[in-house]
Amino acid sequence: MNRGLLWFRTDLRLSDNLALKTAMENSGAIVPVYILEEDRRA
Question: Model pTM greater than 0.85?
């Protein structure tokens, strides 16, 4: 199975996300990644 990695950076919208659409068309499975950075102001 062909897997794709989709790194969400700032745009988490799904309905009109071109990168997500492309990944879905070219991969059998998608691994979504989003890194939530810790607030360093404290």
Answer: no
